[in-house]
């Protein structure tokens, strides 16, 4: 036994380079198997933590309303409310906060609630001080400005009846006089308040189908005694979810079940009163999402791990085969001594099994260490390392595969005849039948998988074909490159006789030296896997950027509580040059959503990923949807319009001028009458004194803009504000006949000439009006359409409901807020000279990175709250299980290339003695040294070049085929941008140049070492 052990150790030492390479490859294969399940579990847990921490607390926390059933103090009710909700909470929850809130009162020109919370002022930015006595209040800063309240002065919270409720005989409650001791600003985040948006102004909402929602100036913060004095009150109890780094999906499931313990629209009897749920908690959906992420992580990590393992085994097969060939004399001597087949196999396997035994603990330690390193480097701090049975099972399977590889390598030598073993000359032999069958099977399987993926046009989660295709294409490309290189070398050898000596020598060496061409397969596989891994990683990163920009189309996205028109005016006022902020919005409509943008600022402010509009930059996108004219605006107290009329009409002509809407109320004035000749009429517009007014439309008709019979011509000579011409009110305003089929127009011709607006009018035998709209608005609004817009929905857009008909002028892949399921339009198309239901349009402000502090402060002071940021959305997506799993592809791409280079160096070192003998033979017969070196370089360049080309092509094909039918993440839905399965030519060129540089260096070094040792003594030494 000790003799066998000594022989094994001597063999391992004598073939130290091959042994070290085999140990390294085996260790990497085992480490990959151990790392895969560990990393899959770790990224899922990390995603869970990140998902919960980044989600708005309103979606993960609890908000319940406690109604006391008897007359008790607010302090006792708050204590009962906290106890009741805490008793129902199970899992990782933080402390519960009680807010005593009054019933809604009609005061401060809207609907008001009074709130009392013990630590209210600790979580608010306050000017003044916190209420301490009964009757002292804290108002929202913007609400205080609108109400004319002054800190330290009394304020009457008298009853107020909004226009929508007037005449209904409802009571008009109020609480009388209070003292304003301070103001507060809406919290920028949910650190102290579960739903910060509750502490902001909400505008009045009116729609044709929904209920009327009055204006609300935000909660009035006061003392519990003040709330009790109002009369009716309840206690709201808010609970934040606690998210430690070691939270598990099982603990989240417990929390989700407790969150759903009170059914929707149900009241639960508790001690001291009743408890009802009033939250938007969605933990159950997070649990389902995490389970899906677990499956996605496992299926996405598996191809990377499998690729790494297979490349390692392929290279291990090459090294073990080389080691076995070096042991041919040893095994032949054992056969001459009468060793039987069983003992010969044992002798042959002893050395490789010893190498595998040495490599196993190294691989396990490397897998655990790399798992810990990657977890600490990429995942959330404090995350535990999940080591399960899957890692050990995978490691055992890899070891069994390595043993099988060793058996195949030894079998190729042991099964040769004794005469072949003793001859000492390795000549090309025909491929064995089993080898041909195996190769044909691989080619057939790769073709079948490739066809199945090409025929699958729908996106979905990764499946077994995505796992197999990159590896199969890599192996098939390697086999094809090996075979093609050998055939071409044989053909070139026959053709090059009598020509270049170096060409003949190199092609003959390729066609006859199998050891040289065998390196093509593992190098091709390594490059293919690296190209595929890098391509998938880069494509996924680009896709996640697109998804993040859909949710936050700028560095910061603010939510606006006021109308789009008011938001637009705000952005124009605080940023006149349009460099930092812009108004934007979205309208959700089944089959065709709308993304409403300010096209004049889109290119400067918004984030626009190039994948949204391939081949078209954001400037061109903005130009495609911008209106032909610009709606003019002005500020002033009085407007004057001068008209030169030659119109015959049944009634005296009057002019209606429209200025859009404010607070849901249309703003307009009537000027007239206009008789024949040049006449100027004026009217007061007090609402345009402080806030600019857009001149959206005009109507020339009978009294109050009614229909009348008319014929002739009229010219609008000028439109002035406070005696001064309004800039751009005619020239560049793009006046058109109002594109409304319900309006019978009297306009037969409309033209602009020398700064005047000329109209030809004729109603014929009927009546009508000359209704005009600025901005160049046409009936079919200019729009860019996403690929997921349903064609049947386009025909229904003009059926009311506050939507607009569109005429798509092109297609794009994505857009803000609504992604590929939307229509991108300019704001003028949506709000100019038409009623807009504010409840339909979700309005935001997009803020560019680096905006001045004054701009940010103005947004906050106007009641805007930060909805999200691009960095936050990208961070959430980057921490998803799939994104974290794809990081492993970058590691795999680097590792397979390093393994290929290591295998190449070992293979070159093993072949060096044989190459030196061939070179020495050529030198003895008088071949110049330069020709020998050129022949060696050419041989290696052809072999390595064919491997690089085949690998790049196979990896690119696998990337394209897999990505075109794969969804690279969980964020699926109509608003999710599609993945653009493109191949980066720049990345391929860089990779090709790197391969050429590395392989060229290897060829030069190998040629130099070959020629340097090629002497006649080399042949004499080999003949001994």
Automatic annotation (TrEMBL):
It is a multi-pass membrane protein. It comes from the Bacteria. Residues 64-89 are annotated as: Disordered. The keyword Transmembrane helix applies. The chain crosses the membrane at residues 304-323, 344-369, 389-414, 434-455, 467-492, 518-537, 888-910, 931-958, 978-1005. The keyword Iron-sulfur does not apply. InterPro entries: ABC3_permease_C, Macrolide_Exporter_MacB. Keywords: Cell membrane, Membrane, Transmembrane, Transmembrane helix. Residues 891-1007 form the ABC3 transporter permease C-terminal domain. GO terms for cellular component: plasma membrane. It holds the Pfam family FtsX. Its main location: membrane. GO terms for molecular function: transmembrane transporter activity. It is found in: Cell membrane. Residues 69-86 have a biased composition (Low complexity). Belongs to the ABC-4 integral membrane protein family. This is ABC3 transporter permease C-terminal domain-containing protein.
């Amino acid at each position: 036994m000790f003799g066998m052990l000594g022989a094994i150790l001597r063999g391992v030492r004598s073939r130290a380079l091959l042994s070290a390479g085999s140990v390294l490859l085996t260790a990497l294969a085992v480490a990959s198997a151990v790392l895969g399940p560990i990393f899959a579990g770790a990224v899922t847990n990390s995603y869970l933590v990140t998902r919960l921490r980044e989600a708005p607390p309103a979606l993960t926390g609890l908000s319940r309303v406690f109604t006391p059933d008897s007359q008790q103090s607010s302090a006792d009710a708050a204590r009962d409310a906290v106890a009741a909700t805490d008793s129902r909470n199970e899992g990782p929850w933080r402390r519960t906060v009680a807010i005593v809130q009054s019933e809604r009162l009609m005061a401060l020109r809207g609907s008001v609630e009074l709130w009392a919370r013990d630590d209210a002022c600790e979580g608010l930015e306050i000017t003044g001080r916190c209420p301490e006595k009964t009757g002292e209040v804290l108002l929202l800063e913007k609400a205080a400005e609108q109400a004319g309240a002054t800190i330290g002065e009394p304020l009457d919270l008298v009853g107020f009846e909004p226009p929508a409720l007037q005449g209904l005989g409802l009571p008009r409650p109020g609480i009388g006089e209070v003292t304003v001791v301070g103001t507060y600003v809406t919290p920028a985040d949910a650190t102290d308040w579960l739903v910060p948006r509750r502490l902001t102004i909400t505008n009045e909402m009116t729609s044709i189908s929904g209920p009327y929602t009055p204006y609300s100036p935000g909660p009035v913060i006061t003392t519990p005694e003040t709330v009790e004095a109002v009369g009716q009150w309840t206690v709201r109890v808010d609970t934040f979810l606690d998210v430690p780094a070691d939270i598990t999906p099982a603990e989240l499931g417990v929390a989700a079940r407790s969150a759903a313990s009170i059914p929707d629209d149900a009241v639960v009897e508790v001690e001291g009163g009743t408890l009802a749920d009033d939250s938007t908690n969605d933990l159950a959906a997070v649990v389902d999402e995490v389970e899906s992420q677990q499956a996605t992580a496992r299926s996405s990590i598996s191809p990377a791990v499998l690729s790494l393992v297979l490349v390692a085994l392929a290279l291990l097969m090459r090294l073990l085969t080389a080691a076995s060939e070096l042991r041919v004399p040893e095994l032949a001597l054992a056969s001459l001594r009468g060793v039987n087949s069983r003992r010969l196999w044992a002798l042959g396997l002893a050395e490789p099994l010893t190498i595998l035994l040495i490599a196993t603990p190294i691989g396990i330690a490397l897998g655990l260490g790399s798992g810990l390193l990657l977890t600490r480097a990429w995942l959330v701090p404090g995350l535990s390392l999940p080591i399960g049975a899957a890692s050990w099972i995978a490691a055992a399977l890899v070891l069994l595969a390595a043993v099988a590889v060793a058996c195949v390598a030894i079998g190729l030598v042991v099964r040769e005849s004794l005469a072949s073993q003793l001859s000492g000359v390795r000549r090309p032999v025909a491929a064995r039948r089993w080898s041909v069958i195996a190769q044909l099977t691989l080619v057939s399987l790769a073709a079948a998988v490739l066809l199945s993926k090409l025929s699958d046009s729908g996106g979905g989660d990764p499946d077994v074909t995505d796992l197999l295709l990159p590896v199969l294409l890599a192996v098939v490309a390697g086999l094809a490159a090996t075979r093609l290189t050998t055939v071409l070398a044989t053909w070139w050898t026959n053709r090059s006789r009598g020509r270049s000596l170096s060409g003949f020598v190199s092609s003959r060496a390729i066609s006859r030296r199998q050891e040289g061409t065998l390196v093509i397969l593992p190098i091709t596989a390594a490059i293919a896997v690296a190209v595929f891994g890098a391509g998938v990683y880069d494509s996924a990163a680009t896709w996640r950027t697109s998804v993040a920009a859909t949710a936050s189309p700028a560095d910061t996205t603010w939510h606006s509580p006021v109308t789009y028109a008011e938001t637009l005016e705000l952005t124009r006022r605080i940023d006149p040059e349009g460099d930092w902020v812009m108004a934007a919005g979205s309208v959700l409509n089944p089959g065709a959503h709308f993304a409403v943008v300010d096209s004049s600022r889109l290119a400067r402010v918004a984030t626009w990923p190039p994948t949204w509009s391939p081949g078209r930059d954001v400037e061109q996108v903005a130009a495609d949807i911008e209106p032909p004219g610009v709606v003019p605006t002005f500020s002033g107290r009085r407007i004057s319009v001068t008209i030169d009329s030659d119109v015959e009409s049944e009634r005296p002509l009057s002019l209606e001028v429209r200025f859009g809407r404010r607070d849901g109320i249309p703003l307009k004035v009537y000027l007239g009458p206009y008789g024949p000749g040049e006449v100027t009429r004026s009217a007061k517009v007090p609402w345009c004194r402080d806030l600019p007014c857009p001149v959206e439309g005009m109507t020339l008709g009978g009294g109050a803009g009614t229909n009348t019979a008319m014929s002739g011509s009229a010219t609008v000579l000028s439109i002035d504000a406070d005696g001064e011409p309004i800039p751009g009110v005619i020239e560049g305003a793009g006046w058109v006949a109002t594109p409304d089929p319900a309006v019978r127009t009297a306009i037969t011709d409309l033209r602009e000439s020398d700064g005047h607006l000329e109209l030809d009018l004729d109603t014929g035998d009927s009546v009508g009006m000359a209704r005009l709209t600025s901005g160049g608005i046409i009936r079919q609004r200019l729009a860019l359409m996403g690929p997921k817009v349903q064609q049947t929905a386009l025909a229904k857009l003009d059926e009311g409901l506050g939507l607009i008909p569109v005429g798509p002028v092109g297609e794009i892949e994505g857009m803000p807020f609504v992604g590929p399921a939307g229509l991108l339009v300019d704001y003028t198309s949506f709000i100019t000279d038409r009623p807009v239901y504010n409840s339909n349009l979700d309005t935001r402000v997009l803020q560019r990175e680096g905006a001045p502090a004054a701009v940010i402060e103005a947004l906050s002071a106007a009641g805007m709250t930060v909805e999200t940021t691009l960095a936050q959305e990208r961070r959430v997506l980057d921490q998803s299980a799939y994104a974290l799993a794809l990081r492993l592809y970058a590691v795999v791409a680097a590792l397979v290339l390093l393994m290929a280079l290591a295998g190449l160096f070992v293979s070159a070192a093993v072949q060096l003695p044989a190459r030196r003998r061939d070179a020495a033979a050529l030198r003895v017969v008088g071949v110049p040294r330069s020709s020998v070196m050129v022949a060696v370089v050419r041989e290696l360049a052809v072999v390595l070049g064919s491997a690089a080309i085949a690998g790049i092509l196979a990896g690119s094909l696998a990337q394209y085929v897999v990505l075109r039918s794969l969804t690279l993440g969980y964020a699926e839905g109509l608003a999710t941008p599609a993945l653009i399965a493109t191949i980066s030519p720049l990345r391929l060129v860089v990779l090709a140049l790197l391969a050429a540089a590395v392989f060229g260096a290897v060829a030069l070094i190998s040629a130099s070492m070959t020629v340097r040792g090629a002497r006649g003594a080399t042949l004499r030494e080999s003949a001994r």
